[in-house]
Structure formats: structure tokens, C-alpha cells
Amino acid sequence: MHSIQISPSASKEELYQLLLPQIAELVTNEPDPIANMANVTAVLKEAFGFWWVGFYLVRGNELVLGPFQGPVACTRIGYGKGVCGTAWQMGEVQIVPDVLLFPGHIACSTHSRSEIVLPLFKNQSVVAVLDIDSQYLDAFDETDQRYLEKMCAYLDF
Ligand code: SME
User: Fold this and answer.
1) CA of 29 to the centre of ligand 1 (A)
2) Parent domain of 56
3) Where does ligand 1 bind, in terms of residues with CB under 6 Å?
4) CA pair distance 24, 7, nearest whole angstrom
5) Structural domain contains residue 4
6) What CATH number should be reported for the domain holding residue 142?
7) Closest CA to 157 of 2, 53, 40
8) What is the pTM of this model?
């Protein structure tokens, strides 16, 4: 049984640096992808207090809700729809400083003000996305992108 060590005074970058090896250890000892995605969402929610953290999994021509932490969310998102579907379609990270300014943003919660979505690949195809919502405007930047990519690289799908 693991407990995640979090320093309350750490900067965002320091926190990611603290978490990375802990996540590596957590997920490399467990082969089941759902269990690992679930724990990654728990770590991120607990460490950063994000409003919502979750995975959507590619199932046919839709994304279907996977392991998450936070309020109830939309279960299905079409290809190219919303921030998640756009990340899937473009195969590129989406950093949205103000969700109200993103055309087609899907509002699962009115409390969500900014968002980051990373496409996750297996054999050059997007198989899932990691979606994180913040209740604050402009909460995400390239630091989040860099470390979240490193964290997700430990996951196998
Ligand atoms: N806002 C997302 C939908 C998922 S929820 O934020 C959990 C989107 O526009 O794709």
C-alpha cells in the first residue's frame, strides 16, 4: 500500500518532480491499465486540488469516460467534439486558459474555468486522453504539459 508524499509549500514544478518517481513506482508494479489510470487521477487530484481529473478512452468513434476523480462528468464525447475530442482529432495537447473562449467546449461543470487535455498514444494512434479541469482561469501551461506527458508515459494501455 502506497501513500503519496506531498510537500504543501512546493512550487508546481517541485511538486511534479516529487510525484514523478512515486507515480513511476506505483504504476510499474501494477499491470492493469484501469487501476493505474485510477491511481494517477487520485494522485493528481490530491496533490494539486484540481477540480476534475480523468481519462477518456477511445471506443470506436467516441471517447468514453474512464477512471476519474471529481464530480460526475459527461460519459461520451464525439471525435473532434469539445476540448477532448479536439485533442484526439489533432493528436495535440490542448491548453485552454478560458474554457468559455474555446468554441465547442463541452461544459460538464460550470465550475470548470480552464483545462488541459493530453492525447495518449499507443502504436502511433490516440487511445485515450487525460483531461484536467481547474476552477481557476489560466491554470495550465507548458510545465503541466511536460510533466503530465512524463507521467502518462509510464502508463500502458
Ligand atoms: N470539457 C471537456 C469535457 C469533459 S469534462 O471537462 C470532464 C471537453 O470540452 O471536451
Assistant:
1) 30
2) 12-153
3) 52, 73-74, 77, 82-84, 105-106, 108, 112, 115, 131, 133
4) 18
5) no
6) 3.30.450.40
7) 40
8) 0.95
